[in-house]
């Protein structure tokens, strides 16, 4: 296979009723001049949803094809071994384990919950669970995040609130600030509120159980399907309210902080004011620009990466040299 290098991909766009125009106006995504766009899937290998390399010798190659050709070089041996495991349902093997997307919420998203891996494996067809984390890239005044339930809300109280149309009353909510990171383990009730621009890293799953949709109807005047029974089966009623995470500074590296370190992914934030090297440590690294602009020395495109731009650094690339244009903040994630 052609030697691997830092990879940029063509985004895949989703047009949902809660989308807007900021993927184009603020993140410079090629969404055209009309229509509302809710999500830009930046790095994905999930069935027919495939990221395609945008430039360099591998242009036109799908992410899944890269894994088939040399999973260890792309992912790192430990991750490659994990996705080959026979403990996974057959349809979930040999897939890139994470999904990176950008979301523009011009309206509130539905209140929803995702299953964990064990619960997801029981679906037809089986899917991964969905643990995720959000980085707030922009927040209009009054924007809210709904994350977790009010303290003391158990399954009986929650079911009663949903049945009587009082779902919002039992949700934990807060007004986030730009730069906040919110960790949403599988089983956590959540919703992204109107006015937020979010970078999300998640397991490569598209399984969502919708609990409440704010009384909305579709273009035909029909409400969207709710999944109350499935939701009650997977909600973690012990987890309680969720708040933004407290960054943990990386020892010996003044510009880096760990935001999330769970069994599904590790996510760090880098604040850059001068050129520096970011190591891969033998695992792929997903890079997303949260603010500012950067140049990556080994990027075959030669173009800057701006706010909202993303890159996949293969495990076989020992490190990348990143030069900020002025200053920049990055989100860096690995499995």
Strand content: 35-45%
Mean pLDDT: 96
What is the overall shape? Answer: globular
Please give the number of β-strands.
23
Spell the H/E element sequence: EEHEEEEHHEEHEEHEEEEEHEEEEEEEE
Q: Mind summarizing the main beta sheet? A: 8 strands, antiparallel
Q: Name the CATH homologous superfamily of the largest domain.
A: Jelly Rolls
Distance between the termini: 23 Å
Radius of gyration: 20 Å
Helix content: 10-25%
Low-confidence stretches: none
Number of domains: 2
CATH fold-level name of the largest domain: Jelly Rolls
Can you tell me the CATH class of the largest domain? Answer: Mainly Beta
Class from helix and strand fractions = mainly beta
Secondary-structure arrangement, i.e. CATH architecture of the largest domain: Sandwich
Plain-language structure description:
The active site is at residue 210. Residues 8-124 form the Phosphomannose isomerase type I catalytic domain. Zn(2+) binds at residues 114, 132, 190. The protein is mainly beta and 335 residues long. It folds into 2 domains: 9-234, Jelly Rolls (Sandwich), CATH 2.60.120; 248-334, Jelly Rolls, CATH 2.60.120.10. It has 6 helices and 23 strands. The protein has helices at residues 22-25, 63-75, 77-83, 117-120, 155-163, 228-234; strands at residues 9-10, 12-14, 39-43, 45-46, 49-50, 52-53, 98-105, 111-113, 132-139, 145-149, 171-174, 181-184, 190-192, 196-203, 209-212, 248-250, 253-261, 266-272, 276-279, 285-296, 305-306, 310-313, 319-334. The strands form 6 sheets. Strands 16, 17, 18, 19, 20, 21, 22 and 23 form an 8-stranded antiparallel beta sheet that branches. Strand 20 (285-296) and strand 21 (305-306) form a beta hairpin. Helix 2 crosses helix 3 (77-83). The mean pLDDT is 96.
